[in-house]
Design a protein that fits this description.
The complex is a heterodimer. Chain A is mainly beta. Chain A is built from no helices and eleven strands. In chain B, strands 2, 4, 5, 6, 9, 10 and 11 form a seven-stranded mixed sheet that branches. Chain B has a four-stranded antiparallel sheet with strand order 1-3-8-7, with no helix packed on it. Classes of the chains: A mainly beta, B mainly beta. Chains A and B meet through strand 4, strand 5, strand 9 and strand 10 of A and strand 5 and strand 10 of B.
Chain lengths: 112, 121
Amino acid sequence: DIVMTQTPLSLSVTPGQPASISCKSSQSLLHSDGKTYLYWYLQKPGQPPQLLIYEVFNRFSGVPDRFSGSGSGTDFTLKISRVEAEDVGVYYCMQSIQVPFTFGPGTKVEIK
Amino acid sequence: EVQLVESGGGLVQPGGSLRLSCAASGFTFSSYAMTWVRQAPGKGLEWVSAISGSGGSTYSADSVKGRFTISRDNSKNTLYLQMNSLRAEDTAVYYCAKGVNYLPIYGIDYWGQGTLVTVSS
């Protein structure tokens, strides 16, 4: 199975300041079709996960442009340019290039 | 608007069975893969099982293989998860999730609200 790791596991951020989360996979997520199957989700308290970023850097419909994704191969990053109070929750990366899909352990983001 | 509504969760004894359903609307159901993901209380997300748009291909985690069966009825826009031989470690909120495309490899975009399954005597 592909192992996904995230750092840090928790983050406390002042509103308006940037935040960055790293996600690493134990194998390359680059498919032979040229796409990289890495996704970012945010699970707000008491809610199901919601898709933020698909295929490394594509923002999903309705996601604010303060969220951005980058990376390649096995190393990926989610950045929030200016954290807002509504961004609190747990952020997960996920790979879907290989079954079983696997998630990172999650990064809990809190507001200072 | 995509809507996914899970049902069928509840309290069941170890060794028992349960069938979860997920009613989908707002998209052409048969054109998209579907997935079940679970989350044990206070824990992270665990992929359980996925099925292609036609239902012809299914995939399951080793932890549930031989016990859980994913299926779909495209005429009813409904996804199912038949869970047998349930164990305490299967206790979790089970989320139904819509695939980005016809095959599961393309990831997940929308999630339902989840249904809680508790396995306890």
